[in-house]
Amino acid sequence: MSRLLLACLGLIWVSAVSAQDVLLRASVDRATVRENESLTYILRAEGQSRDRPDFASLAADFDILETRSSMSVQMAGGQTTTVTEWLMQLMPRGPGNFTLPPVALAGALSNPVDVEVLPALAGDAPADIFLEVEVTPETAYAQAEVIFTVRLFRGVNTGRSSLSEPEVAGGEAIIERLADDREFQVVRDGRPFATLERRYAIFPQSAGLLTIQPVTLDAVVITSSGFRGVQVFSSEALELEVLDPVPPPPEWSGAAWLPARTLALTERWSADGEPMTAGIPQTRTLIIEAEGVQDSQLPELAILPADGIRQYPDQPELTREVTQRGLQARRTERYAVIAQAEGRPTLPGVVLPWFDVTEGAWKAASLPPHDLEILPSAEQPAVQAVVDPSATPADATETPSAGIWQAVSAGLLVAWLATLGLWWQSRRPAQEPVASTEQSTPRRASNRRLLRQLRAACQANDASRAHALLLEWGALRLPGAEPSSLGEMAQRLPDGFAEAVEGLERSLYGPDQGSWNGAALAAELAQIDSVSRSADQREDTLLPLYR
Fold it and tell me: Considering the domain 129-243, what is its CATH architecture?
């Protein structure tokens, strides 16, 4: 008796677990069809169950033409999940708006799915094979996306076949194929047709009347009598009216022409909600996401300067997703933001004007001004009096290891710095006064602080922090305009130093992104540190180089 009771309890428990563990999700491949076109209903079950779904509720307004299923096992996070999919071909019995009701499996219910069924198109009796094309919308703006759809209907079997790509006449256009082909059944005059649907995104480049040339199909046709022969089938040509770009309103004068269906602008911070510390960088990420545009159309954001804040841009990332609805583009811009002193500065807001092709009006995506809280740096540079040439620097314990090659390297670096200094001095106006030793002392202290922080970042293999500090050091020590990127900075450095900087840039933006070893850059910085201290003590002709 006790064994029977335990067995019953076990069955009840297994049933309860299976009902809780099974997750059902329903969808259709096309939410809008005509009454003589089929659609595919997809039921996805995550979790294991020996039961079979009850599809009887789907037969109220649709005929079930075909049902097939597949099973797979997926692993994620060390857990194994059984996934089962049922695909059903449904043919609507008439036009109207319908809701496919939830389907039950092991005590779980799927979501309902809405379907719109349009009336069938009237026409002559269809041929065995024919093509239909359409363009949406029929009137578009220059450089805006239009969707060109090709449907191939086959009432007989075909052998080898080839469907041509669309071409245009009367102007230039960028044409791109969208996602995968879709296959379904259509009934015309009581006759079933296997249907293939293919979509393209077309971006007309200038205003005027654009003609989309006929699409052709070359196919080996197999009739009921077994006859085989190559036949050519063509669609009709379509005309597309392309409008001129609409000038922006006065408040956005000069804005780039950016036609899109939707556009959004978002912002993220590496330490969102936390105060910044002077001298320590944070990463600010700005993201543009738009539908109906190519990624190359998304412009660079206009970032306004802020007092006491330095913003160093990284290389932007451009990505896109190809869907049946069209192209979805994304531009990601990252900035290393460094505060120079404690306080409460404000980063100005960001505004990106764009043209809504759906409403035919200019709009703007914007981010509000961002208030920052800056804490004082834990390491304040000490401002000293004039350095006694006979005195030993406080951090002079860090010296390059002995050896002939170190001496040669240091000599070459000194020669390079001297040459660059003389060249820079020759370019400066004769009346410009040379800064005094007293004025250079805080600058040397800032240089040493940056070098210490840079070497610490290299020893920790912290690529992001090394990138930000290296740009700040370059702005302080290199002549000319402040370097805006590591690539620009590398062009102004000697070979060994440049190679180390380029290696850092490749680890951040190149194809071999990932872990970075800062040993090479740390070695170059050690030589720079040694030469800089010698120059600071001598106060010789190298001093104007860094101003």
Answer: Sandwich (2.60)
